[in-house]
Design a protein that fits this description.
four-stranded antiparallel sheet; globular; five-stranded mixed sheet; Aspartate Aminotransferase, domain 2; Aspartate Aminotransferase, domain 1; 21 helices
Length: about 475
C-alpha cells in the first residue's frame, strides 16, 4: 500500500515492472502487447496527473493492473451493439431500421468468409458486372425493364438526377419538397446533382398546368416525390402520375418518381395502409423509380433504381455509380430478402419487418402478460407496473400518420408528481445500461415498453435481474 510519507509519483510502479507481472501476461494474451502497454501507460499517467494528493487510493501493483484490465475491457467493447427496440417505432432510424431475416444473415456470412464471384462471370471465366446478381430479380418483382442498386435512396435520387438532368431544370411541386432525417432535403440533393429546381404550384395545391407551364427548353426531367414522412390534408390538390407522364412524354422528357420508403407488395393484404409500389408507378407511365431497401421492403440499407432500360443504362454509365455502389455483403443480404418476395404466401412469417408491422394486438398482449411479473419483481416497490393499450408507429418516414394498436408495460414512479421527470429519466437510463440495452419511451408521466417488436422474450427476461441488483430506480 502507499506510504503516506511519500509523494504519489514516487510509489507508482514502472511500466516495465507492470508488464512483467503474471496478471499482465494474461492481458497481453487477451488484448495484445501494444494495447496492454498503452493501457498501462494511460493508467499510470492518470494516477500521476489526476490524483496527486489522494493517499487513499490503493496503488499496489495488483491494484494498478486491475485498473488496466478495466480500461482494456472498456476499450475493446464494440460501440455498435444489439438493443431491444421497445420504443413502439418499428422502423426506427436511430436503432437500425429493418431487422433482417435469417436468410439474409446467412447469405451475408457466406460471402463475408472468403472470395466470391462478385464481379466474375462463372460461365465465361471473365470479369462480370456486380449488378447482374440483382437486376433480374428486381425486374421480376417490379416489372421494370432494367434496374440498378446503390447504397441508399438518397444516393439513388442523386445519381438519377445527375445522370438524366445535370445542368437542366427539374420542375417539382412545392408540396413535395420533402426533408427527411439527417437534413436530407430534395432542394439540396438537386443542387448537388447539378440540377436547377423549379418549384411549381403551392404547398397544398399543384395543378397539371403548373407543370406544363414550367416546361421549357432547359427542362431535363419532371419529378414526383412521394411524401412518405408527412401528409397534407384538407384543401389539397396533387397531380397523378398518369397525367404527369403525359406531359413529360409529350415533351420527350423522363418522369422520375422518388417513392422513398417503397414497398414491393400491396400492404393492405396484411391489414396495413396501402403504399404505392414501383410496379404501380411504372404502370402509370413513370420512367424511373427510386426507393429504399431498408424501410418497408425490410432489407439492408440500399437504394433501388428501376425503370426504362435506356435510362438505367445511362445511369449505370455515370462515374458516380462506382462511388455509390453497394458491397458484397449488402448485395447478398438484399438478394436473400428479394428471394423471400418470390414466395408471397409465406412472406409475412419470414420477413421480420412485415411480421412485426402486421403483428396482432392479442399476440402482443400475451407477451405483455408473460413478461409483466418479471419486470415487476425486478423493479421493486418504488414503482407501479402494469400493462396498457398503446399505439405503435411504422417509422422512418413510412406511413407517417398511421398507428398500429399495441400493448406496453407501463412503469410509473410511486408518490407525487414532484421529481417524477428525473425518476423517469433514471428508469430509462437503467434499462439502457442492461447487457442488451432496452430502449423504451417516456410518455404521459410513465416509462413505456411497447412490446410490438419484442420477439425474444426469454432473452429480455433473463437480464432483468440486473435491474434489481442496481436497485430498480
Amino acid at each position: 500500500m502507499t506510504d503516506p510519507a511519500q509523494p504519489l509519483q514516487a510509489v507508482l510502479p514502472s511500466v516495465d515492472k507492470l508488464l512483467r507481472r503474471d496478471e499482465t501476461a494474461a492481458l497481453i494474451d487477451a488484448y495484445g502487447r501494444t494495447a496492454t502497454t498503452n493501457a498501462v501507460r494511460q493508467v499510470l499517467a492518470e494516477l500521476r496527473e489526476g490524483l496527486p494528493a489522494d493517499k487513499s487510493v490503493a496503488l499496489d501493483e495488483a491494484g494498478v493492473i486491475g485498473r488496466v484490465a478495466d480500461l482494456l475491457e472498456a476499450q475493446s467493447a464494440f460501440t455498435l451493439r444489439p438493443v431491444f427496440n421497445l420504443t413502439g417505432t418499428v422502423l426506427h432510424t436511430n436503432l437500425g431500421r429493418a431487422p433482417l431475416p435469417e436468410e439474409a444473415i446467412e447469405a451475408m456470412t457466406a460471402v463475408a468468409r472468403g472470395a466470391s464471384n462478385l464481379e466474375f462471370d462463372l460461365a465465361t471465366g471473365k470479369r462480370g458486372d456486380r449488378d447482374d446478381h440483382l437486376d433480374a430479380l428486381v425486374c421480376e418483382l417490379t416489372g421494370a425493364e432494367a434496374a440498378t442498386v446503390v447504397n441508399n435512396n438518397a444516393a439513388a435520387v442523386l445519381l438519377v438526377l445527375n445522370s438524366l438532368a445535370k445542368g437542366k431544370e427539374v420542375p417539382v411541386s412545392r408540396g413535395e419538397l420533402i426533408e427527411i432525417g439527417g437534413s436530407f432535403r430534395i432542394p439540396d440533393i438537386m443542387r448537388r446533382a447539378g440540377c436547377k429546381l423549379v418549384e411549381v404550384g403551392t404547398t397544398n395545391r399543384t395543378h397539371l398546368k403548373d407543370y406544363a407551364e414550367a416546361v421549357g427548353d432547359k427542362t431535363g426531367a419532371l419529378m414526383k416525390v412521394h411524401t412518405s414522412n408527412y401528409e397534407v390534408q384538407g384543401f389539397t390538390k396533387a397531380v397523378g402520375e398518369k397525367e404527369l407522364a403525359d406531359v413529360a412524354h409529350k415533351h420527350d422528357l423522363p418522369l422520375i418518381d422518388d417513392l422513398g420508403s417503397g414497398t414491393l407488395v400491396d400492404l393492405s393484404q396484411y391489414g396495413l395502409p396501402h403504399e404505392p409500389t414501383p410496379a404501380e408507378a411504372m404502370a402509370n407511365g413513370v420512367d424511373v423509380v427510386t426507393f429504399s431497401g431498408d424501410k418497408l421492403l425490410g432489407g439492408p440499407q440500399a437504394g433501388l433504381i428501376v425503370g426504362r432500360a435506356d435510362l438505367i443504362a445511362k445511369i449505370k454509365k455515370n462515374p458516380m455509380k462506382r462511388a455509390l455502389r453497394i458491397d458484397k455483403v449488402t448485395m447478398a443480404a438484399l438478394a436473400a430478402v428479394l428471394h423471400l418476395y418470390r414466395d408471397p404466401d409465406r412472406l409475412a412469417s419470414r420477413l421480420p419487418t412485415l411480421r412485426l408491422l402486421a403483428r396482432p394486438q392479442e399476440e402482443i398482449a400475451a407477451v405483455a402478460q408473460r413478461v409483466l411479473p418479471s419486470i415487476a419483481a425486478a423493479m421493486g416497490n418504488d414503482v407501479v407496473v402494469d400493462t396498457i393499450d398503446c399505439q405503435s408507429q411504422i417509422g422512418s418516414g413510412s406511413l407517417p400518420i398511421e398507428r398500429l394498436p399495441s400493448v406496453a408495460v407501463r412503469i410509473q414512479p410511486s408518490g407525487t408528481k414532484k421529481g417524477r421527470g428525473a425518476a423517469l429519466k433514471r428508469l430509462a437510463e437503467k434499462f439502457r445500461s442492461l447487457p442488451v440495452p432496452v430502449i423504451g419511451r417516456i410518455q404521459d408521466d410513465a416509462f413505456l415498453l411497447d412490446l410490438r417488436c419484442l420477439e425474444d422474450a426469454d432473452g429480455f427476461v433473463a437480464q432483468l435481474a440486473k435491474l434489481k441488483e442496481a436497485g430498480g430506480q
